[in-house]
Specification:
Layout (H helix, E strand, L loop, with lengths): L1 E2 L2 H10 L8 E2 L20 E6 L8 H11 L6 E6 L11 H10 L5 E3 L5 H9 L3 E4 L11 H8 L4 E4 L15 E3 L6 H14 L1 H15 L4 H19 L1
Parallel strand pairs: 1-2, 3-4, 3-6, 4-5, 6-7, 7-8
């Protein structure tokens, strides 16, 4: 049994305790040829981005409230959400979009889902800070979206879901905030403010994010599968 994250592995071992010696982890890959380092010039206008499904389980209300509080001091923050919004394609629907719009006082830039990886990489590269504040305790398996942003060299903030621990080490190659805390909005606000105030830190963490993302190349992940296939062939003929 092959799991895409340690979090999934733990869940499967609880369900199949008699098979736990046959359960392994091989993470999902990203195309490191496309999601590769891109320099971002520091400007007075600052873009905070999320890409993925626009759905309540992604915790976007936490991000909207945190940015709303920060705009009092930093009015030139731009919040960009990229992804599907309609229910038919997995989004939260127009009512949820209107709710976020109201919370943000209309100050969200909406971008339709992008299927072209090159265009998506270019879009992500336009941001200064990337945030994936998911609160889906049982709805995230690995987290390719923030890993793509790391590949481009952006400082990434994620929630404290276990699945992100496979590729993000807090304040080393990314940032983690406790989405379960009653002060989650304030915690995220303070973290974003630190990154706004310290552009050199953003660049330093972004570079480390880029370096660590190289371990998730298609080739590296394929080699892990091939290694396991060889073991299976040797064991079973």
């Amino acid at each position: 049994f092959c799991c895409v994250s340690t979090a999934v592995e733990r869940a499967l071992k609880r369900q199949l305790p008699d098979k736990k010696d046959k359960i392994i982890v091989i993470n999902n890959p990203i195309d490191t040829g496309i999601y590769t380092y891109r320099e971002k010039e520091t400007t007075a206008d600052l873009i905070i981005m999320y890409h993925g499904r626009i759905h309540p389980e992604k915790g976007l209300d936490i991000l909207v409230l945190a940015v709303g509080a920060l705009r009092v001091k930093y009015p030139r923050i731009n919040l960009v959400f990229v992804g599907v919004r309609d229910i038919a394609n997995g989004g939260g629907g127009e009512q949820y979009v209107r709710q976020l719009e109201k919370m943000a006082q209309g100050r969200i830039t909406w971008v339709d889902p992008i299927s072209d990886p090159l265009l998506l990489a270019e879009t992500i590269a336009s941001c200064d800070i990337y945030c994936y504040p998911s609160i889906a305790e049982k709805g995230e398996t690995f987290g390719v979206a923030p890993l793509e942003a790391m590949g481009i060299g952006r400082p990434v903030i994620v929630s404290a879901l276990d699945c992100f621990k496979d590729f993000i080490e807090d304040r080393v190659n990314g940032f983690v905030f406790n989405h379960r805390s009653p002060d989650a909005v304030k915690d995220l606000e303070l973290l974003i403010e630190q990154l706004i105030e310290h552009p050199d830190w953003r660049k330093e963490i972004g570079l480390e994010a880029f370096r660590s993302s190289r371990k998730f190349s298609n080739k590296h992940i394929a080699d892990q599968y091939l290694s396991e296939f060889k073991i299976l062939l040797n064991n079973h003929g």
